[in-house]
Amino acid sequence: MRGFDAIRGQDLPVKILRHYMRSGRVPHALLFTGIEGIGKRTTARLFAMALNCTRSPAGGGTPETAAGDAPCGQCRVCRRIVAGKHPDVIELAPIKGILRIEQIRHLLAGLAMKPFSAPQRVVLIGDAQAMNAAAANALLKMLEEPPEATTLILTAHQRADLLPTIASRCRHLRFSPLASADIVVLLRSALDISDEAAGAVAESAEGSYTRALRLAQAGWLARRDWLLRATGLDQPPTSTPRPLTWALALSAQLAGQKDRIETDFEILKSWIRDLSVWPYLPARIIHRDREATLAHVGATLGAGQLLDLWEVLEKAEKNIAANGNLRLTLDVMTLRMAQVVKGR
């Protein structure tokens, strides 16, 4: 982790944080909002490093040793923060999906004492929207009488997820979904993956690097290729279509992997979407690594067939969401998809 340059796609929040440091007026409470996986927690840690780095002006560095307003990432303080071992940089996260009153009380007891060694103690409360009512009220009391030399950073999906009385006492910084190009760069630096494959994953990640990384590591590309082969959507319809028993066998395979159903629908719908978009806006397709296949298949499927396939998937998704019989729903879906592709 080296300076704020490690944060991609969040120029405005980083600019504001740098202004706070340069002015010497760091707010006692900050609220970072945005979807999962766009750099909120990483930015908070870097801010904590910058405030306490022994080579930065905020942390007491001299002009000769200072690395601008960014943390050096190399001094003992920076290394301890990165390792999660600095006593004055405290992180709280939900336990089983909930931030509990006991966690906030323990935090408040610690904040009643002076910082151990840091010029500026930093507390990061991740997923603050998970606070229960008791925890939120306890935190509110701390915000009304903030401890000395302490900055509290909350992260949440959106401001409305928090009590208005808490949100109003924080300086609010919005973090934007990442551009696909930024996600590709991050994926390429973390994994052995081609530009085209990284682009396909990035386009499916809805602006979240965390989601993109999870998809790539879970074999999303291999699952996509298998799914397209299994449904026959990776090749033009033939004069000798597959028997309907094939559709039922596919349904059985899908039903046997219920934890992948949501991802499978996303893959199929994004493929149908690309087949529809390809003739008009080829630069906007998601599955860029399968561009030749899209062109080949798209030339043989009409707009009416693509619309029918989309509606089949939509109907199946709604039935599953409504707790309909999974196997029966998938049977109907795969049979109907086979009929649509054959032109019936």
Concise overview:
Helix content is 51%, strand content 7%. The chain is an alpha/beta fold and 344 residues long. Residues 62-67 have low confidence and may be disordered.
Structural notes for this entry:
The longest helix is centred in the last third of the chain and has 19 residues, at 303-321. The protein starts with 10 loop residues before the first helix and ends with a helix. It has 344 residues and is α/β, with parallel strands linked by helices. The protein is elongated, with a radius of gyration of 25 Å. It has helices spanning 11-23, 40-52, 76-82, 101-111, 133-144, 164-167, 180-190, 195-204, 209-217, 220-231, 244-255, 261-277, 291-298, 303-321, 326-342, and strands at residues 29-33, 89-92, 121-125, 150-156, 171-174. Helix 11 (244-255) runs antiparallel to helix 15. The model is unreliable at 62-67 (pLDDT under 50).
What labels describe this entry?
single chain; alpha/beta; Rossmann fold; 5-stranded parallel beta sheet
Radius of gyration: 25 Å
Give the low-pLDDT segments.
Answer: 62-67
3D shape: elongated
H/E series: HEHHEHEHEHEHHHHHHHHH
Cα(first) to Cα(last) distance is 57 Å
CATH architecture of the largest domain: 3-Layer(aba) Sandwich
Strand content: 5-15%
How many DSSP helices?
15
What is the CATH topology descriptor of the largest domain?
Answer: Rossmann fold
Strand segment tally: 5
What is the multimeric organization of the chains shown? single chain
Can you give the mean pLDDT? Answer: 90
